Amino acid sequence: MFPPKFAWGAATAAYQIEGGWDSDGKGPSIWDTFCHKGGGLVYEDHSGDVTCSSYVFWEEDLKCIQQLGLTHYRLSVSWSRLLPDGTTKHVNQKGVRYYNKVIDDLLASNVMPMVTLYHFDLPQALQDQGGWTSPEMADIFDSYACFCFQTFGDRVKLWITLNEPYVCAKLGHEDGIFAPGIKEPGIAAYLVGHNMLRAHARAWHSYHSMYRAKQGGAVSLALNSDWAEPVNPASPDDIAATERYLAFSLGWFAWPVFVTGDYPEVMRSRVELRSKELSCQDCRLPAFSKDEPSILGTADFFALNYYTSRRVKAVGGLPEGCGLKSDQDAEAVVDPTWPVCGVSWLAVVPDGLRKLLKYIKDTFNNPAVYITENGFSQVGPVVMDDVQRCGFYQDIIQEVAKAIQEDGVDVRGYFAWSLLDNFEWADGFRVRFGLFHVDFAQPEKTRTIYRSGREYAGIISKYQSQTNNSQ
């Protein structure tokens, strides 16, 4: 049984579904720039220029949402569609009208929007000024967030400031495989993560002081995390490495917000130690200023994106250079007994979500939790009768139910990734997570429900009926 008013949702992101990359006054984002460089940065040089054309076919998306029986829909707004140069000096009213229509249509269908302000698509104009490596980004993001609260907050009651800052920092600024494609191991990622936390905190404080009393909403940031267990449960080294792995991923952002207002001690001490070994003048992990708004307590709920699990072992002997892996001295691997869905990194481990939820309860002061992304990928030929994905949704939602009923985790909602097959970042259109298949070869981008979409709709209907009957 799920609690009353449990959020049954699906999620999307603006760059991945909207298309219309330069339509109606929209400015370019870093993903526009990254994709347009070509050269294999994205699978077969795919881009989000058109993708699902949701900017044109929003009504078709709404039909999909209604067909599933969703109570909630998580979407992101495109910063550069609203503010083409990233600042409030120039507001694109056509972008405002588009999102007003989306929000109003959802509410008219009794679907609650959860709106993400930043899902990887920084306006290129801001990247040209240093992007997330610039400390000024905290104030710029706060101004953008306040614009959105002021414009849409009379109707939007669930806000996500930032999606997966870990991914933005590591994949975008250490590995260089996501936009903006920067490779500065051990330096840029920590700076980006720091500025994103500062930006989130400022936006939360602005909402709390200026909008909460009148609008009555809630604000958080969406953190991605694997579940992690030691390769050898009897090895103290592997156990310690597992703790470091979680500290350098989930803890990096959750610890400052939910526990102490600062980074995990093991993270700070190891980066300081490695910085001295590398003769860095300063620790590469910045310190939070006491003159700025506090990071601690700046989340009204815990928003979790979970996809997979890992086995972790201790590794050493990485003195050359610096980087997250050498700072944490831990290597994460896929257990060979776990099935893999579509892509090599995505092992299917439903009970890992339950374990992670229990860890969050115990580690981060028993917060209310929304699972804001979770899904199962498909590659190769399109299989509409996707039996494996059907089984996945049955299994994963059972694990969420166990976390609620047996472990006492305060889970408030579950959002499947994704409503639609879409542009999956560096994987382009090769990887499909949708509850609806999108025919990208057709001008109208026809949406067709997968068997798993019908399965998910049935799960929602069943649990909602049980909840209604118990009241």
Features:
471 residues, alpha/beta, TIM Barrel, eight-stranded parallel β-barrel, 16 helices, globular, Glyco_hydro_1, beta-galactosidase activity, glycosidase, Glucosidase, beta, acid 3 (gene/pseudogene), GH
Question: In words, what does this structure look like?
Answer:
- By secondary structure, the chain is of the alpha/beta class.
- It has a single domain (7-227, 301-307, 343-470), classed as Alpha-Beta Barrel (TIM Barrel).
- The chain is built from 16 helices and 13 strands.
- The protein has helices at 14-17, 30-36, 58-68, 79-82, 93-108, 124-127, 137-152, 165-173, 188-215, 236-247, 250-258, 265-277, 324-328, 350-363, 387-405, 451-470; strands at residues 7-11, 72-76, 112-118, 158-163, 218-224, 227-230, 302-305, 309-314, 330-333, 369-373, 411-417, 436-438, 447-449.
- Helix 7 (137-152) runs parallel beside helix 9, helix 8 (165-173) packs antiparallel against helix 9 (188-215) and helix 14 runs parallel beside helix 15.
- The longest helix is centred in the middle third of the chain and has 28 residues, at 188-215.
- The chain is globular and about 60 Å long.
- The two termini are 12 Å apart.
- The model has no long low-confidence stretch (mean pLDDT 96).
- This is Glucosidase, beta, acid 3 (gene/pseudogene).
- Keywords: Glycosidase, Hydrolase.
